[in-house]
Each structure stands twice: as C-alpha cells, then as structure tokens.
TrEMBL record:
Record-linked PANTHER family: LD18447P, PEPTIDE CHAIN RELEASE FACTOR HOMOLOG-RELATED
InterPro entries to which the protein is assigned, alphabetical: Pep_chain_release_fac_I, Pep_chain_release_fac_I_sf, PrfH, Prokaryotic/Mito_RF
Example of a GO MF term: translation release factor activity
Family of this protein: Belongs to the prokaryotic/mitochondrial release factor family.
Domain Prokaryotic-type class I peptide chain release factors residues, every copy: 114-130
Domain of life (superkingdom): Bacteria
Name of the molecule in the record: Peptide chain release factor H
Amino acid sequence: MIYLQISTAQGPAECQMFARFALQKILREAETAGVEAEILEETPSKHGILSAVLKLSGSRAESLAASWQGTLQWACPSPLRPQHPRKNWYIGVFRLPEIPALPESEGIEFQTCRAGGKGGQHVNKTESAVRAVHLASGIAVRVEGERSQHANKKRALELLALKLAEHHQTALRRHAADAHKLLYRVERGNPRRVFKGEGFREQA
C-alpha cells in the first residue's frame, strides 16, 4: 500500500490548476498500469485543488509512485493572469508514511508470577499476578491487584487494550504531523516531470 500526497504548498491558482491536472493524470496512468487508485482526501479550490491524498495498491504501484515523487513543473504563461510575469509553476508529490494499523489483538503472551505485597497473605501464596505482552508491538502490562489469576488476566487484557489504543493514536498523530509538514514543502529546481503549455504537454 502506497500513499501519495499532491500539494501546492498553498501556491497560487495556477498551481491549483496544475495539481488538479496531476491528480487526473496519475489516476489515468494508474488505470493503464492496472494499479488500484483511491482518492482518500481532496481539498478543492476555485481553480483546481489545494492538495490530495491517494492510496495506490497493486504490483506496479511502487513504480508508478516513483515516477511521480518529487517536484513537478508546469511551464506556461498564466491562463488566468495574462500580464503576470511568472511563467513557471511548481507543485510537489510526496510519499507519506503508511497509515499505522491497530496492532492485532491476537498474539498476546501471558506470564504468571507471584504478586508483590506483605508476606503471609493469600495473594502471595499463588502465582496470581499476570503479565501480558502484545508480541507484535512489544507493549506489556502487569496486573496483580486482584486475588485470582483469572481476574488479573481479565484486567490485564483491559489495560493492554487501552495501551494499544494509545499507541495507535500516537502513531496516527505522528503520521498526521508528517503529512502536514509536507503540505508546505515544495522545492523548485530539478523537477521530476515537466509539463508545458495550457494543454499540459509533457516534456520528454
């Protein structure tokens, strides 16, 4: 699974026109290559789009994404502002980190041990404490507050579920922050692909 973000970096209307063209062309190339493409997010504007996020999947998704990643250049006098001196417009196509999935609930390892506390109490005479480890993520919890192993195991599962949810939310926030940074980063020069004129003819 590959996630691509098209960004104008809050560029002018001409960049927004170019971004809409790029999105449509990526979708056409994906269809030709047999790559499944889905628009996950699109921010429209009056003249095009400000940004979009695409999900690509299939055996040729990697090569398709690689052919677009980087800065794109459109060399054309502004069709909206004929007197504008600028003739080159830039947008960026970035690969986002994969959206993290919630770790599987299966694959939990349970370990029993003697509970801590004052000697002589029943809680210390049996291995009632439970340590639960989610093998996929390495997240672990230890519970010994209940008298029975069964009760501690149940509580451990509840705590582990909370820890996994927190882990998932943290990863999502990190992913969103990374994506937000890319929205404002478009480098000019050394474009990956160059298009010319109002017909967006690609330069060989």
